[in-house]
Structure formats: structure tokens, C-alpha cells
Amino acid sequence: MNKKLKCAIIGYGGMGAWHAAQIQKLKFLQVVGAYDIKPERNAFAESNGIHAYGSLKQLLADPEIELVVVATPNDVHKSLVIAALAAGKHVVCEKPVALNCKELEEMIAASKKYKRLFTVHQNRRWDSDFQTVEKILKANTLGPVFNIESRVHGSRGVPGDWRNKKRHGGGMVLDWGIHLLDQALMMTLPRKITSVFAQLTHVTNTDCDDGFRVTLQFNDGLNVYIETGTSNFINLPRWYILGENGSAIIHDWYCKGEIVKVSDWENRDAVPIQAGAGLTKTMAPRTDDTIKHYPLPPVKWADWIDFYKNVVAHIRNNAPIIVTHDQQRRLMKLVETVFASAKANKVIRTKL
What we know:
Blueprint (H helix, E strand, L loop, with lengths): L4 E6 L3 H10 L5 E7 L3 H9 L8 H6 L5 E4 L6 H10 L3 E5 L6 H14 L3 E4 L6 H11 L6 E9 L18 H16 L5 E9 L9 E8 L4 E7 L9 E5 L2 E5 L6 E6 L10 E3 L2 E3 L10 E4 L10 H13 L7 H20 L3 E2 L3
Parallel strand pairs: 1-2, 1-3, 3-4, 4-5, 6-9
Antiparallel strand pairs: 6-10, 7-8, 7-16, 8-9, 10-11, 11-12, 12-15, 13-14
């Protein structure tokens, strides 16, 4: 880790430039160049002090480069990853790793053939809101959890570049869904998914999905509901978790929220309240003497840099990689199941 590992960026768009800016802050990685098919993006790289190669061939032929970061539109991930592996480079690919399972298997086969690292930038595993939910779930803070809701809402539609075109792998399932589904798979281990039901929305875009709703049922009865919308002018909470002993809410990425747990199971009686045109006892709120409010459990702000630390440690010292091929296999199988469920408009039984 003492000697800087040199890398190059393929695709110097928004994410490529972000990767380069973050890597340049690190002591163990160095960006030596970039390449983009758009001349103006190459010029922008040069303006940021990064050498812009004249072609992809030139970049892959540079013997200084050990690691390549692929940050291009989704439809060319496979070809670029395989080309970089064949050139003897280790590869970090932006999410989604591929458009389908078949493409992913070709990329994994190339990684094995050329004996080079191939991993995926699943950066949302380092989000503190996600790690807070994971801690609540695994610590049994709410007792047995039976329902988790995960949402991301916006109101600007799908961005007006390649992300809103199906042929480039656009749409919210492959954009935000790939994050939220990955989070659901990671925090629920070792549970298995037994059924998937999905619906896609096309409010502002007929070419690809601009939102989705997915319900995952797990083998122990846990239900996980995942939703992304791009026409939501009032956002619902980022997370809502229900357990036998209480509930938790997280409003945003900055972990604003709370936990409410029952403190007196014996005091079950309730005074009916006026509700609309009638009375209800079932939905009458609990009194303060039967519940307690708690802050969310403290979680150290996640250090995303651990992703690249792990990549370099694997390359230099063969450390176990965090984002594995089998994890990506399971994720892409789930993505394919989501699309299949939405197309057929039915629940799909599975053993994921």
C-alpha cells in the first residue's frame, strides 16, 4: 500500500469525473489518465490535470496502468470490461455491472481467463442510513422484524441523457434499483427470497421505466418493499421498519428519525376515539405510559474509501474482495426477476 497504484478512467462523464476526483485524494491510488468518446469530456479531464488519451487503444496499451475504472453508459460495460481484462488490467465497473446475467457471466469468465480482478462499485453499501437499518435488524432492536420499506423519491423525471433510453440500459431499476435491491440482499443475509412482485411506472418516459415498486418475500416471512419514483413532489420516508416490539423511521440519508417501542405489554386496553364519521378502538393511539421513544442507534459515518482500500489490498496482497461475483450473480438474477414479474404482472416464485 506504500506505492501508489496507477489507474485510468474510461468514461469521463459525471460518475467518471467523480471517481477521478475522489481517487486523487487517496494516498494509495493515482489517476494517470482518462478517455471518453466525447472530445469535450477529454478536454475537461485535461483541464483537471488528468491526461486524456487519444483513444481507448492507447489507454489500454499503457503499461503504467494497473487498474481501470469503467464509468460509461450501461450498454457498453461488458465490452469495455472484457477489453480491459484482456489488456492485463484489473477492473472496477460502475453499477449496474451488466444488462443481464448472460453478460455478467461473460465478464466473470474473462476475469478468470486473464487472472485479473473484476469487481463492481456498489457504493451504497457504505450509506449510513442503510447501515443503521442493518444494525437495527441484526441487533433484534425491534424484536422480529416483519416489514421493511425502502424508498427513494425525486420529482424531475429520469435525467435527459442516456439514462432515459432503454437501448443504453436506462431506467430506474438499473439506476437506483440496483442500489436498493443490493442493500436488501446484503442486510437480509442469510435469508432467501421466495417470491417477487414488481410494477414499473412510465409517467414521464415511455421508453424505459421512470419508477418501480418491488415486493420481496423471504423464507422467514420477512417482507421488503422497495420503491423508486421520479414524479414525487412529496417524499415519503427513506426507511420504515416494523417489528413485533416497535417501529423505526428514517426520513433521509442523514439518519433523521427515531425508534418507538412498547414499554407496557399488559396495558392493552384503549379508549375509543372519534375517527371520521365513526369510532375506533383498534386504531386509537397508544398512551405515553405504554411506549418509549429512542434515538436511532449510533452508526459511525461510513467511509466509502474502504471500497478502494479493499480493491488495492486485493491487488497487492490478495485480500478477500468485498463486492464478489456471487453477490453480483444473485443481484442480476433478482433484477431479471423484477423485469419478468413486471412484464407478466404476476408474482414470481423463486429461491434466490
